[in-house]
Write a structure and sequence with these properties.
GO terms for molecular function: SH3 domain binding. With 715 residues, this protein is α+β, with helices and mostly antiparallel strands. It has 31 helices and eleven strands. The longest helix has 28 residues. The N and C termini lie far apart (89 Å).
Length: 715
C-alpha cells in the first residue's frame, strides 16, 4: 500500500470526455499512470499521450517535475511532446501556406515548454526555422511566428547561440535595419539580437558590425513602446558587452546625436512616467555612462606625470595672481608654491599629489577640480580667495573638500558599481545634462562653502559639514529634479537650518523622551497596535504582489504573482503577463498550504542567492527571501519589487509562522502608531464634555450666496 503522502488527488480532462478524478500514486511510473488514464477512456497507444497542466502555464508533466503536482490540480491528457514535435515538424514543411502558418503559430506557443523544445530540437527543428529566415520567402505573419518560436526554443539554452550562421545573423540585422519591416518582426529580431550580444563576445562583434547605430536610435524615436523598449534593451546589451574603447566610441556617437536629450524629452518628460522595463534600461544607461569615470576614480595621481603636475600647478596659478615665477630662485619659487598650495587646501603643501593618492576618488578628484577652475573661473577664484582671507581655523579647505565631495558623489551616483539586474532608480537630471558628474560637483562645491559658513565650521567640524552636504545632495536628488538648474535651486534652498528642522521632525518620531508613566502606557498599548499591524500585513498578503524573476538576459515575460487565500490557509502563486493587474486567485495554478511552510529565509541564506553566489549585489540581496516547505526539501524564492514589499511579505509570513515581526517598516509604523495613540490619550480633556452620541448634522443653508465665485476673476 502506498503511503498517504505519496498520493495526490487530481482531475484529468480531455476534450469531448468526462473528467477523471484519480488518486495519483507518485511512486508509480508516469507511463503506467498515463496508460490507466487512457484505458479509462478506451484510448489505444498510451505512448502517444502525455499529461499537461490545464491552467496557467501549460507545462508537460515529466518524471523530473511530477513532484510539483499538488492536491486539487487539474491536468489534461494531450499529445506526447515527441508526437507533437513530429506533427509540427511536418506541418512547417507543408506546401499549404495555411498549414505552415497554423503549425508555426502553435510552435511559438508550445516552445515555452522545455520538454517539447528538447524533442523539437532533437529533430533539428530549430535548423528548419533558421532556413525559413535565411530564405525569407514567407509572409510577415508566418515570419513573425517563425522568429517567435525560434526565440522561445533558444531561450532554454539547449542550443548555443554561437552555432548560428553569419547569413542568419545578417538576415536578423537586416530586419532591424530595414525601414519598412513589420513592427512585430522587428520586436522579435531586436530580442534575438540582444540575446546574441549577451551570449558571447564574438557574436557581439558580429552584431555590432551588422547593426547600424543610426537605425537603432531611430527605433527609440518611434511611438511603438514595445519597439522603443526592445531597442533600448539591445542598446544597453551592446554598451555593457563592449570593451572600454568601443564603449567610449558608442557613447561619443550617442552624445553627438543628442540621444540622452531625446530620451529625456520624448520618453521621460512627455509621458511623466515610464514602464518598469524601460525604467530599468534608463537606469542601466545612466549606470554604464557614469561608470566611464571608474578608471579615473581607481587611478592615483602619478607624481612623475608631467601632465598631471601641470594640472596641479594650473589650479594654483588660476587661483592666485603671482609675479613671474621664472625670475624667482628655486628656493623662493618652492616656498611660494607650498604657501599657495596650503591656501588651496592641500594637506601636503610640498607635494600636493600625495593628497590624491587615495583611491577612490583618485584622479577623478583632480578632474573635477580642474573642470570647476576652467569652466567657472570666477566662482573658483571667489571660493579660494574668500577662504584665504578667513582666520585659519574657519577657512574651508578647497582641495580637501573637493576630494571628499568627489568621493561622496561617486557613492551617491554609484560610480564603480555594476548595474543591478532589478534596478530602476534613474535620475531624470542625467538625461538633461551632459557631464553630470562634473556639473554636479561645480554646484555642490559652492553649496559646501555656503553650508560651511552657515555652520560657522572650523577644521575640526570637517566631517560634520561633509555629512550635512551629503544629506543635502541625497535629499535633493531623491525629489527627482529634471534639470541642473532645478537641482541647484532646490539644494541651495535646503540650507543647514532646514536640515536641522528635518532631522528634528524625524527624531520626534523615533526618539521621544517619555516619562515613566508614559512608558508604562506605551507598553500597555503595544500588544493592541502590534495586532493591528499583523492584520494589515495579512491583508496585504491577501491582496498579493507581482514579483519579477531574475534573468541574465532580459526582463520581459518573467513575472509571477503570489497571494494569500482569504482564510489564510493557502499561498497561491503562478506566472502572469506584464499587463496583468491583481489576477483572481483562481487563475494562480500553484499553491502551498500554510501548514506545510517550515521556515523563512532572507538575504544570502536564500537558495537562489546561494546558487548565484558572487553574482548578486547588495541591492538584490536586500530584497531576497524564500520560504521552505514540505520538510524543508522545497523552497519558493522571491525577489521583492521594493524594500517596502520585502518588509510587508517577511512580516506577513512571520505572522503566519507564529513568529515575531522584525522588519524596519514594522518598527517605524509601531513608533508612529504609539506616538499618535499616546498623544490622543494624553490630551487635556478635563471639564470637556464628551457626548455619548455623535452630534446631529445641521440642515443645509437656504442658499449658498456666501461662496466665492472664482469665475468672475478668471473673466
Amino acid at each position: 500500500m502506498p503511503q498517504q503522502k505519496d498520493i495526490v488527488k487530481i482531475a484529468i480532462q480531455m476534450p469531448g470526455a468526462y473528467p477523471q478524478l484519480i488518486q495519483l500514486d507518485q511512486k508509480k511510473p508516469l507511463s503506467a499512470v498515463i496508460k490507466e488514464v487512457c484505458d479509462g477512456w478506451n484510448l489505444p497507444g498510451s505512448e502517444n499521450y502525455a499529461l499537461q497542466y490545464a491552467d496557467g502555464v501549460q507545462m508537460y508533466i515529466t518524471e523530473s517535475n511530477r513532484l510539483d503536482i499538488k492536491n486539487g490540480c487539474i491536468l489534461r491528457l494531450t499529445k506526447a511532446p515527441g508526437r507533437c514535435a513530429e506533427d509540427l515538424f511536418k506541418g512547417i514543411q507543408s506546401s499549404d501556406a495555411g498549414v505552415r502558418c497554423d503549425s508555426l503559430k502553435e510552435l511559438a506557443s508550445v516552445s515555452t515548454d522545455v520538454t517539447f523544445a528538447q524533442e523539437f530540437i532533437s529533430r533539428d527543428g530549430h535548423l528548419l526555422l533558421v532556413k525559413i529566415v535565411e530564405d525569407s520567402n514567407e509572409s510577415n505573419v508566418i515570419m513573425t511566428h517563425t522568429l517567435t518560436g525560434f526565440m522561445e526554443l533558444m531561450d532554454h539554452g539547449i542550443v548555443s547561440w554561437e552555432n548560428l550562421s553569419s547569413v542568419f545573423i545578417k538576415k536578423i540585422a537586416g530586419f532591424v535595419n530595414a525601414k519598412s519591416t513589420d513592427a512585430s518582426i522587428q520586436q522579435v529580431c531586436l530580442d534575438i539580437l540582444e540575446s546574441m550580444v549577451l551570449s558571447s563576445h564574438s557574436l557581439f562583434l558580429q552584431v555590432k558590425q551588422e547593426i547600424t547605430m543610426e537605425r537603432l536610435i531611430a527605433h527609440l524615436q518611434v511611438t511603438n513602446q514595445q519597439i522603443q523598449t526592445k531597442a533600448m534593451a539591445l542598446l544597453m546589451a551592446l554598451l555593457q558587452t563592449a570593451g572600454d574603447s568601443d564603449r567610449k566610441d558608442m557613447f561619443d556617437f550617442l552624445t553627438k546625436k543628442n540621444v540622452r536629450q531625446y530620451i529625456y524629452k520624448n520618453i521621460i518628460h512627455s509621458s511623466g512616467s515610464v514602464q518598469d522595463e524601460m525604467a530599468h534600461y534608463l537606469y542601466v544607461l545612466q549606470s554604464v555612462t557614469l561608470n566611464l569615470q571608474e578608471p579615473r576614480m581607481r587611478t592615483p595621481l602619478d607624481c612623475c606625470s608631467q601632465e598631471q603636475r601641470d594640472i596641479l600647478h594650473g589650479l594654483r596659478q588660476a587661483a592666485f595672481e603671482t609675479e613671474s615665477e621664472n625670475s624667482l630662485s628655486h628656493e623662493r619659487r618652492r616656498s611660494l608654491c607650498a604657501k599657495e598650495f596650503r591656501k588651496l587646501g592641500f594637506s601636503n603643501n610640498s607635494n600636493p599629489g600625495q593628497d590624491l593618492s587615495r583611491t577612490p576618488p583618485g584622479l577623478l578628484a583632480l578632474d573635477t577640480m580642474y573642470y570647476f577652475a576652467t569652466r567657472y573661473p570666477d566662482a573658483y577664484s571667489r571660493f579660494v580667495l574668500e577662504n584665504s582671507s578667513r582666520e585659519d581655523k574657519h577657512e574651508c579647505p578647497f582641495a580637501r573638500s573637493s576630494i571628499q565631495l568627489t568621493l561622496i558623489l561617486c557613492e551617491i551616483l554609484r560610480i564603480g558599481e555594476p548595474p543591478s539586474e532589478t534596478g530602476s532608480g534613474y535620475h531624470p537630471i542625467f538625461f538633461s545634462q551632459d557631464r553630470l558628474m562634473e556639473e554636479l560637483f561645480c554646484v555642490c562645491i559652492q553649496l559646501l562653502n555656503k553650508t560651511w559658513k552657515e555652520m560657522r565650521a572650523t577644521q575640526e567640524d570637517f566631517d560634520k559639514v561633509m555629512q550635512v552636504v551629503r544629506e543635502q545632495i541625497t535629499r535633493t536628488l531623491s525629489s527627482k529634479p529634471t534639470s541642473l538648474e532645478l537641482f541647484k535651486n532646490k539644494v541651495n534652498a535646503l540650507n543647514y537650518s532646514e536640515i536641522l528642522k528635518l532631522r528634528q521632525t524625524e527624531r520626534l518620531h523615533q526618539e521621544e523622551t517619555l516619562a515613566p508613566p508614559v512608558l508604562e502606557l506605551k507598553e500597555r498599548l503595544k500588544p493592541e497596535l502590534l495586532e493591528l499591524i499583523r492584520q494589515q500585513r495579512l491583508n496585504r498578503l491577501c491582496q498579493g504582489t507581482m514579483f519579477r524573476k531574475i534573468s541574465s538576459r532580459r526582463r520581459q515575460d518573467k513575472l509571477w504573482y503570489c497571494r494569500l487565500s482569504p482564510n489564510h490557509k493557502m499561498l497561491h502563486y503562478g506566472d502572469v503577463e506584464e499587463d496583468t493587474e491583481n489576477p483572481p486567485i483562481e487563475t494562480l495554478q500553484e499553491k502551498i498550504p500554510v501548514a506545510d511552510i517550515k521556515g523563512l529565509l532572507t538575504g544570502k541564506d536564500c537558495p537562489h542567492m546561494k546558487e548565484n553566489k558572487g553574482k548578486q549585489n547588495k541591492e538584490v540581496l536586500d530584497l531576497a527571501f524564500s520560504i521552505t516547505y514540505d520538510v524543508e526539501e522545497y523552497s519558493l524564492n522571491f525577489i521583492a519589487p521594493s524594500r517596502t514589499d520585502f518588509c510587508l511579505w517577511t512580516d506577513g509570513l512571520s505572522v503566519l509562522l507564529g513568529r515575531e515581526m522584525s522588519s524596519e517598516s514594522m518598527r517605524s509604523e509601531l513608533e508612529i502608531l504609539l506616538s499618535m495613540e499616546i498623544k490622543l490619550r494624553l490630551l487635556d480633556l478635563e471639564n470637556v464634555p464628551i457626548p455619548d452620541n455623535a452630534p446631529v448634522v445641521p440642515k443645509p443653508p437656504s442658499n449658498f450666496n456666501f461662496c466665492y465665485d472664482f469665475s468672475q476673476t478668471e473673466q
